[in-house]
From TrEMBL:
Pfam families: SUFBD_core, SufBD_N. InterPro entries: Fe-S_cluster_assembly_SufBD (IPR055346), SUF_FeS_clus_asmbl_SufB (IPR010231), SUF_FeS_clus_asmbl_SufBD_core (IPR000825), SUF_FeS_clus_asmbl_SufBD_sf (IPR037284), SufBD_N (IPR045595). This is Fe-S cluster assembly protein SufB. The lineage of its organism: Bacteria, Katanobacteria. It comes from the Bacteria. The gene is sufB. SUPFAM superfamilies: Stabilizer of iron transporter SufD (SSF101960). NCBIfam families: sufB. Residues 192-426 form the SUF system FeS cluster assembly SufBD core domain. GO terms for biological process: iron-sulfur cluster assembly. Belongs to the iron-sulfur cluster assembly SufBD family.
């Protein structure tokens, strides 16, 4: 997938650069939102202005909040028919393979271009079962009772500076509700595209899997390369009710001028299962730590994380799992690859509350270095306040084995091909969890990125 192309299109709405109260009021007014949402946004703006930038992790000092566009609308209304989408936007997603994927593989798809979802569809048989798959803005208007019950309950604006920013200027994103005991066997997909220079994208995704249901959701993200900074600061909230299961897969390939600063959090009820599969290949800086709160007995959580950092990239990723009930289990598997002067970091937390019993957790962090100047960091933190716990932790940092390289090259492979094969084997525990089409695409993207970046 070559995502580094730009689409020439004249927006129907483009607010001036900069963030202030008028920006927030304009966004809310353009969306015709209820008064409580405007009040929510303005309180979040005050929190954003009051909070300091993170004093830990990658350097974020290059972000200039006054030099960003916070809202751009590329068309006046969302389309349900692909034929109705403007040709320029349609061509963008055709080149990314989205309509073809919808026809061949998906239960439903949404496509977000800049600030708004431009296209959305859902298979009729799922609609008949009561499944809701819409953009978040429409859900606010059409399903206010469900929306207000869950919105901002997992990630409140005060959580961190960038969740406050998102809460003030959020636009677009996916809203999914799966009724009790309904299984959505084939994935739902959303695709997020930043096209404009100096763009800020702030989608808000909210997923509710009611009792005994199942949903598999996949999102992809790209942007063309500019010399100016863009910002992606999304919020994802997932509620897994009793006996339900959610798998959320991200494959991002942002360009090297995007700061990707995302807050993802899930609450899991009794006997529920939450699985994050998080693949991070692009961006200048990524800070993302999907978290799982195991709130009910028998709940299970898993975070599978892959980071690939080449020269000029800093991938600071990981996961957090909180055991708040007995008979809960969790697993974190982190794989990172650093090439050239790339920096990859695993930053994770497992916290087991006092009084819980029969808790199992295991953390595996593996880093692979592909060059003399590449860097891998690991910051695992496991806090245990209970005695009835089985906890394991494994961490390795390794370089490409020269004997393996030599052996593969004697079989006719070039050095790049040999290293690519070794990397493919290293990431296989993550790649095998992806749908086949996405696993193939992941390996292809890695192959492209590795050319000339190893040494």
């Amino acid at each position: 997938m070559n995502s580094n192309f730009k689409t020439k299109i004249t927006p129907t709405v483009k607010l001036d650069k900069g963030l202030n109260e008028e920006t927030v009021r304009s966004i809310s007014r353009l969306k015709n939102e209820p008064s409580w949402m405007l009040e929510f946004r303005l309180k979040a703006l005050a929190l954003f202005n009051a909070k300091k930038m993170p004093a830990w992790g990658p350097d974020l000092s290059a972000i200039n909040f006054d030099d960003l566009y916070y809202y751009i609308r590329s068309q006046d209304e969302q389309k349900k028919s692909w034929a109705e989408v403007p040709a320029e936007i349609k061509n963008t997603f055709e080149r990314l393979g989205i309509p073809q994927a919808e026809r061949e593989y998906l239960s439903g798809v949404e496509a977000q271009f800049e600030s708004e979802v431009v296209y959305g569809s859902l298979k009729k048989e799922l609609e008949e079962k009561g499944v809701i798959f819409s953009d978040t803005d429409s859900a606010l208007q059409k399903y206010p009772e469900i929306f207000q019950k869950y919105f901002a309950k997992a990630v409140p604006p005060a959580d961190n500076k960038f969740s406050a920013l998102n809460s003030a200027v959020w636009s677009g994103g996916s809203f999914i509700y799966v009724p009790p005991n309904v299984r959505v066997a084939m994935p739902l997909q959303a695709y997020f595209r930043i096209n404009e220079r100096n763009m800020g994208q702030f989608e808000r995704t909210l997923i509710i899997a009611d009792c005994g249901s199942y949903i598999n959701y996949v999102e992809g993200c790209t942007a063309p390369v500019y010399s100016a900074t863009s910002l992606h600061a999304a919020v994802v909230e997932i509620f897994v009710e009793e006996g339900a299961r959610v798998r959320y897969t991200t494959i991002q390939n942002w360009s090297g001028d995007v700061y990707n600063l995302v807050t993802k959090r899930s609450f899991v009820a009794k006997n529920g299962v939450m699985e994050w599969v998080d693949c991070n290949l692009g961006s200048k800086v990524t800070m993302k730590y999907p978290s799982i709160y195991l709130k009910g007995e028998g709940a299970r959580g898993e975070t599978l994380s892959l980071a690939y950092a080449k020269a000029g990239q800093n991938q600071d990723v990981g996961g957090k799992i909180f055991h708040l009930a007995s008979d809960t289990s969790s697993r974190i598997v982190s794989k990172s690859v650093s090439a050239g002067s790339g920096v990859s970091t695993y930053r994770g937390l497992v916290k087991i509350s006092s009084g819980v019993k029969d808790v199992k957790t295991n953390v595996i962090c593996n880093a692979l270095l592909l060059g003399k100047n590449s860097v891998a960091n690991t910051y695992p933190f496991i806090e245990i306040a209970s005695r009835d716990v089985s906890a394991g932790h494994e961490a390795t940092v390794s370089k490409v084995d020269e004997e393996q390289l030599y052996y593969l090259m004697t079989r006719g492979l070039s050095k790049d091909q040999a290293q690519g094969l070794i990397v493919s084997g290293f990431i296989e525990p993550i790649a095998k969890e992806l749908p086949m089409e996405y696993a193939v695409e992941l390996n292809r993207l890695l192959e492209i990125d590795m050319k000339g970046s190893v040494g």
